[in-house]
Amino acid sequence: MDTNEEANKGSIWVYIAIATIPLVLVLGNSMLVPILPDMQEKMGISRFQSSLVITLFSISAGLIIPVSGYLSDRFTRKAVIIPSLIVYGAAGVLAVFAAVWNSYPILITARAIQGLGAAGTAPIAMALVGDLYKGGQASKALGLIEASNGTGKVVSPIIGSLLALITWYAPFFAFPIFCVLSLLAVIFLIKEPPREQKADPLRIYLGQIRDILRQKGRWLIPAFFAGSITLFILFGVLFYLSQILEEEPYRIEGVRKGFVLAIPLLGMVITSYTTGAKIKQNGTLMRWLMNIGLTLMTVALAFAIFLNSNLYVFIGLLTLSGIGTGLLLPCLNTLITGSVERDQRGMITSLYNSLRFIGVAFGPPLFGWLMSISHKTIFTTVSSMALLMLILVFFCIKPSGDMPEKS
């Protein structure tokens, strides 16, 4: 075994360094969710315009992620992650100035550039985990990535709310700081194993990806869309909650609102980490957990159509949906990451993450539009989508026994 690989497997600091990458990424959206109503008021923009602060970030990331995936296969994972964190942090500085200048055009431009940087962070970290770890260690590390992603979602509304006590745009100052910390962790703590060979030239490489999708597309493509729809629902619900909590009859604002937003996400994060630690390469267990998770999401979101007058019950249902998400995503991550050889792993995981970002991108604006119709319309729509994903996953994704490991 390579010395670098041995060092990575034996160090808790490597886990921490890997976990900072998705943490930085998720802060890019979730930390801004609590301040969107304030942004609308202070900048004189509409609800739709404020949702674009989330959407443009996610769309630009989603479009560039496959390019980052190819580059990480062609060169190394760190050669993509490090410049991406630098771009992400630098654009964060521009976003700070845009907020201070009260310039909406500069702000959304900065957010789009941040998305370009985000494309080379967490999606490539997922491929890096597949390079560093095998078997049970890989599923545990992937569960850690999803848990770190979820932890970011839990703490970021609280951090965003706390920073907003200083001034509404204070959360923008946090991005560059977090990027610098993650950058240092990646540079000094992660020793990437040597690459035996680079990815083939682009034409041959794309042909290999096409062959993989032909061979495994029957379950890979449903897995991609299940991850996308799940993130669409999650961020849409967060946007919806952030808007309604400040209205009658709730009138919950500031840090209190941040804590309420964090409750469903806490259920997701605990479940994600536990799931990642338990599934190892057990395909039968993964299939059970994916279907149970989507069933919980479907039932909880369906009950939310009618049970929204009591805030405690409503948040409880959304937490149950979050637990379902925590059962589903680590299983999808493990299946997708382990499905291909190392030289194509960056592109396959990037296609998956690209669709996840697109799901995040369309959540806030579509939920904003659905809010103009009715609460029942929102939750009828998302519970139907969760049911459709349950049917698709049940019939198309059927791992069994111990999954083979890919090097």
UniProtKB/TrEMBL annotation:
The keyword Cell cycle does not apply. It is a multi-pass membrane protein. It is found in: Cell membrane. The chain crosses the membrane at residues 12-36, 48-68, 80-101, 166-190, 219-239, 259-276, 288-306, 312-332, 353-372, 378-397. Keywords: Cell membrane, Membrane, Transmembrane, Transmembrane helix, Transport. Gene3D superfamilies: MFS general substrate transporter like domains. Its main location: membrane. It comes from the Bacteria. Residues 14-401 form the Major facilitator superfamily (MFS) profile domain. It holds the Pfam family MFS_1. This is MFS-type transporter YitG. It comes from Paenibacillus marchantiophytorum.
